[in-house]
Every structure is written in C-alpha cells, then in structure tokens.
TrEMBL record:
<dbReference type="InterPro" id="IPR007685">
    <property type="entry name" value="RelA_SpoT"/>
</dbReference>
<dbReference type="Pfam" id="PF04607">
    <property type="entry name" value="RelA_SpoT"/>
</dbReference>
<protein>
    <submittedName>
        <fullName>HD domain-containing protein</fullName>
    </submittedName>
</protein>
<dbReference type="GO" id="GO:0015969">
    <property type="term" value="P:guanosine tetraphosphate metabolic process"/>
</dbReference>
<feature type="domain" description="HD/PDEase">
    <location>
        <begin position="48"/>
        <end position="161"/>
    </location>
</feature>
<dbReference type="GO" id="GO:0005886">
    <property type="term" value="C:plasma membrane"/>
</dbReference>
<dbReference type="Pfam" id="PF13328">
    <property type="entry name" value="HD_4"/>
</dbReference>
<dbReference type="InterPro" id="IPR003607">
    <property type="entry name" value="HD/PDEase_dom"/>
</dbReference>
<dbReference type="InterPro" id="IPR043519">
    <property type="entry name" value="NT_sf"/>
</dbReference>
Amino acid sequence: MVHIQTIHEMRPNLAENIAPGKFVPRTPAIAEAYAWGQELHAGQKRLSGEPYFETHCAWVGAFLDRLVGNEAWTIAGLLHDSVEDSGESLDRIRQKFPGPLGEEVAHIVDGVTKLSNPRDGRSRELETLRKIAMFRDPGVFLVKLADKSHNLLTLQHMPPAKRVQKATEAIRAYGKLAGILNCYQWRCWLEDLAFPFAEPETFADVRARIDADPRLQLSFIEPFMEQLAHLMEKAGIDGSVSIFAKGYWQTWQKLRRMARARKAPLNNFSHVNDLISFRLVVENNTRTACYELLGAVNTFFGPYLDNDRFDDFIAYPQNGYRAIQVTIWLPDYGAVEVAIAT
C-alpha cells in the first residue's frame, strides 16, 4: 500500500501551537525551573512591552520540550538567560538541580551565555561561528537555535538597523549551525524568518516569483504525487509519497550559485530542481527495493530524465542522508527532483 501525504501547508511553521504564556511543565523539575525563571526575570520586559520570561524564555523551553523532550534541555531553555540577564550563578543552578541534571543544565546555560553578544561589526558572524566551534554539545546548539528562532519571530520590535544586523547574523551563523546539525527544515525556517529583514526588497521579489511557480501549485503537485504512488504500486513496493518545498533563502542562494556557474539565468527558477522535492519512501527499508523503484521511475520518465543530475546517496551517504535523487525536466514546468529513500 502507498500513502500520499495530505498537503496542509507548503512550508510548515515549526512554531505552530506554541503560544506565549501557555507553557505546561511535564515534570516537577521543569515546573521548578519555570517558577524560578519567573522569579529571576520578574519585572523585565521585552521591547514589545511584554513580560520577558513568560513570552521569551518560556517559548524557548516549550519549543525545545516539544522538539526534543529532553528534561535538561527544556530547563536550560527556560533558564538560558538567567546568568546573562539576571546575574545568577552556575553554582546556584547546580544547587537548584542536584546531580547530573544540574550539571548538564549549568553546562548548557554556560555555553549559551558564551555564545552571546559577539562584537558589533563585520567580524560579528565570524566570531559567532568561532564560538560555536568551541562546543561539542548539541544541547548548547539547540538551545541557542531556539533562542535565536524566537528572537526572529519578534524582530519587528527592534530598531531597523538592529533588525538587519540580527537577521544577517541569523542567516550567516545560525543557519549554518542548523545545517551542521542536519536540521535542514529548521535551517530553512530560520533563514526564511530572517530573509525579509536582511534583504527586504530581494525577499519580496524572490517570494513572489517562487510562489507563482507552476511546480508549487496544487494543480500540479497532487496529480504528480498520484502518478508516483501508482508507479510504486505497479512495482509492488509499499511506502509513501511526500513533498518538501525548499526555503526561499535556500532556493535563492542555489539559483545564484547556478547563475555564477552559467547553468541557469538569474531571473528563472525553473532550473532549481529541488524547489520542490518529491520523496518516495520505501516501507520495507531495503536498498534493493529502492533500486527497483529507481528502475521503474527511469522507465516511466525516460525521455525527460536529466542525466547530468543524478546522485546516489544510498551507495555513498552524505552526512547521514541516504537517498537516490533523480531530476526530471517537465516541459511547461521545469526541473523536478524525485528522491527515493528508505
């Protein structure tokens, strides 16, 4: 049987259903951290005039709790500004949460604090990346990414010059960090939050052109997904068909690289094959079935295959990614990527 993804949104919002002031602690230690955070940040306000802890720190904690569900990381998210903004000590965190839990929380908060406040100027992103390279703890990285993500969601409250600075730093430093962690969907979301503030005119033009692309219209996507599902069923392979839409920033950067290499004009996104990617996921998790399905795809789309764009990341995995990627050139639409994976 082949399942077809139901399309609700082309680009899911990772912050969906996380509302400020709605945090519900799921463990006694998290509840204690929440109450302590409220005490430490009492009276502090964001630029929007809203309470600092309830609208920012609690959001970071809630986001991490839903994303990962690691108690120490959630607590570190709630307390990530306790040293920098409230003058609390790491030893006090260890006292509040004795044992390994307190040690891990203090370590993450220390790392997040050290990643904060690089110097202003052109070296800002380089210094941030240098500090990131000092750490090997994914907890530090994820708490900092969650912190930056929420700051981008509320960037409109900052002065215009600061918006550009913060947005540019997010793309150049923290987008790269998400990529290093193989959090590609998070990277696209973060970069697309920053893009309108970093380069507003370019963003407006890029978004308008991408949103009008025929490959992103349901009138193309749904029949094409059904066609791929039929191919899988005909080949006797169980699995699913889903889609992934590339972020606006990532798509724009890829087109720029292609234009520099003279592989595409800068005013035409039709050559960007993974503007939308169709994923054929094989249920029985075998490499043999993937190559059988590749044969079926090649046979059906034969005349339209772009033989210059073929990647076998099952035989040669890249950063843990395993899939076979083929590109199909469809007249009146453009290049379309089909990825076959377990």
